[in-house]
Amino acid sequence: MLGLAGAGLFVAALDAYLVVTLLPAMITDVGLTIERFEQATPILTGFLCGYVIAMPLLGAYSDVRGRAPVYAACVVVFAAGSVVTTTAGSLPWLVAGRVLQGLGGGGLVPLTLALAADLYEDRARTLALGAVSGLQEAGSVFGPIYGATLASAASAAGGWRFVFWLNVPLAAICAAGLLVASRDRGISRTSVNRVAGEPAGTFENRANEQARTFDNRASEVARTFDWKSACLLGLGLGLLVVALYPDDPDHRATSGLFIPLGILSLLVLALYGWRQLRALEPLIPRQLLRSPRFAGVTAANVLIGAALMVALVDVPILGRLVFNLDQLASGLLLTQFLVGVPVGAILGGVVAGRIGERLTAVLGTLLAAAAFLQMSTWQATELAMRAGPFRSADIALAACGLGFGIVIAPLAATVLQLTRAQHHGLASSLVVLARVMGMLIGLSALTAFGLFRFRQILGTPQLTDPDVRARIEHLGRLVAAAFLQEYREIFTIAAGMCIVAAVVIFATLRRETPRLSLTPSSPPR
Amino acid sequence: MLAGVAMVSVALTACGGLQAEDPGQVLRDAGAAMAKISTVSATLKFTQGSVSFQGYVLTGATAAVRLPADSDTTYKVKYQDLLIGLQVVITGGHVYLRPPFSGFTEVTGATAAAIPNLAKLFDVQTGLPAMIPAGNNPTYIGTEKVADVDSHKVSATYSAAQIAKLLPQLSSSGDVAATIWVGGSDHLIRKAVLSGPFGDGGTASSVEIDLSAFNAAVAIASPTP
């Protein structure tokens, strides 16, 4: 059952970033020209916005309505979004489809985590939560290469549109399977933390006092579900994305309404934070919010998410525009990075057990920073440069992926250490949420900066070549050079973000703190 | 019976009570009306086949035309799987080109001659006003609203020789089937769909043309290279 739920989550996570390699084909199909590239940003940010809005909202909602029905509803929304996306004939429909996909896909994260917490206990629960978080991470990371490979293989069947069509049967299998399995096991409307198929009385007898307290609190949370906070979070992030939207990259880096929208966004997000601190039933336990270690891990995850986005988005685009690779080859350029992430994740877990989470996380982020610094020196002929039997670009990308992978386990473990087993689902969800928020903000800000810098670097060339074709080829070379310079600067910024994340981790993960209870009023043990 | 009357009433209301007409007359009226326009905006979208522009696959174009000979057209062409817009301004006999991100520069000689001037499409002697009434086998299809205008929908066939007269750069290896929407009150052509072997190498191709903003103000100035 968890396998089915995880499969749905994996498909949704794949969809978050598969558009990176499909973006040129998608925008060409809806008639968007390269000089209006900024208008394609909402294809990515729209999904992430929906994802971030749904993630904190639907976990608690499923406490009321039951995991399986809400999961099925999310999958239906995701599939509907996929249909809108794949049939889109214009940019607004494409963006609308992606937002719907994000709303459905984002809801699957807390639901699958909560389902893992429902179905397993103790050590098995921790393993299940880890597996679900791993699926989410793997889906995000493998998305670009999955999209490029599938679209190339299915070029005769619609290319990128086929990739989104495929979501429909996959989603149907996951939703139907989960509904059937939950009916068989009788857990579709059970409360949080109840073991599948186990009568309530048996469970109560086996549960300790703390778990009962948790169940009671969870039920209260369910009854007083904080829609307003979730809406405030969505509105605040949405405003921030719009404020960072480069509506006129010829003249400014961000939206013309950056200041008023930015201020409004900060006010709304501040109001959200205030509600979290003051409300009786916050979505996030107050004691967790007040923990310096949790704050440090969250801040580091936001920075790492933004830097991770640079690698996932910019490397394939660089491959396409500067290295002149086709759709599949630009996706495959990320292979070494993608291999590095899971290898690093395992390595991070092993190393953290020996030298501690703090030092391991710092080393991971510094490795990623070093890789970005090397990438900031890339040339247009980079793919021809070799270091021994390997391409130097592949070594840098592998190191970058390895660094990001190494960070995953220590940061996740730190948050899990801060919470009791009953809260691991929420805590893991918060780790993912922080990273996705970092990705969203990072993507919006770096797109704004990148396009503005691109226009600055390129200027307004006067092409006087003898014929039209020669002029376009000449322009192509100038554009590639400008993109390369722009991406070098973005890689430098990503390196800076990794270094800041390392400093934050080093400063905040200094000492052990007691495990926190979800119950807002109870003191830490 | 009542339902049938109601449906006919709804259909008539939807199209403003436009009555079926002789298709040949619709095309003649369209030719006459199009001969009187001074400006027009056009959008072309290729929906089938491959048509090249300067060696690049053309996917569509938008144009503002001021008759008799000025036009401001942006051609959308594929460049390394990406779409780029090439803006061409033709005014006073000069041809100016602006590739994306760059400034205008004048093109001359054979290069300029190879770039179509969409204003020629509306030339009274050789363009649509002259060609449209000469369609073979005109057939009245019905009435439809196009851009909120009640229009007659008529089909006709045009020979390769007729097509070649429209634009020197346009060639077809066979007859071209056209479906034309003509405004019921002003007789202006609102939309046309052309299908025939006018793609690269005589392959089957189809283009959808939308016309709007008839006689509206159009500013086409000589760009400063």
What does this structure look like?
The complex is a heterodimer of chains A (525) and B (225). Chain A has 525 residues and is mostly helical. Chain A has 20 helices and two strands. Chain A has helices at 2-17, 19-29, 41-65, 67-86, 91-119, 122-153, 160-165, 167-185, 200-206, 209-223, 227-243, 258-278, 286-290, 292-321, 327-332, 335-355, 357-375, 392-418, 424-458, 468-508; strands spanning 386-387, 390-391. Chain B is α+β, with helices and mostly antiparallel strands and 225 residues long. In chain B, strands 1, 2, 3, 4, 5, 6, 7, 8, 9, 10, 11 and 12 form a twelve-stranded antiparallel beta sheet that branches. The model of chain B is unreliable at 5-15 (pLDDT under 50). The chains are: A mainly alpha (525), B alpha+beta (225). Chains A and B meet through helix 2 and helix 20 of A and strand 3, strand 4 and strand 5 of B.
Describe the structure concisely.
The complex is a heterodimer of chains A (525) and B (225). With 525 residues, chain A is mostly helical.
Produce the secondary structure layout:
The complex is a heterodimer of chains A (525) and B (225).
Chain A: H1 2-17, H2 19-29, H3 41-65, H4 67-86, H5 91-119, H6 122-153, H7 160-165, H8 167-185, H9 200-206, H10 209-223, H11 227-243, H12 258-278, H13 286-290, H14 292-321, H15 327-332, H16 335-355, H17 357-375, E1 386-387, E2 390-391, H18 392-418, H19 424-458, H20 468-508
Antiparallel strand pairs in A: 1-2
Chain B: H1 2-14, H2 23-34, E1 39-48, E2 51-53, E3 56-66, E4 70-79, E5 82-91, E6 94-98, E7 105-107, H3 109-113, H4 128-131, E8 136-146, E9 149-158, H5 160-166, E10 176-183, E11 189-196, E12 205-212
Antiparallel strand pairs in B: 1-3, 1-12, 2-3, 3-4, 4-5, 5-6, 6-7, 8-9, 9-10, 10-11, 11-12
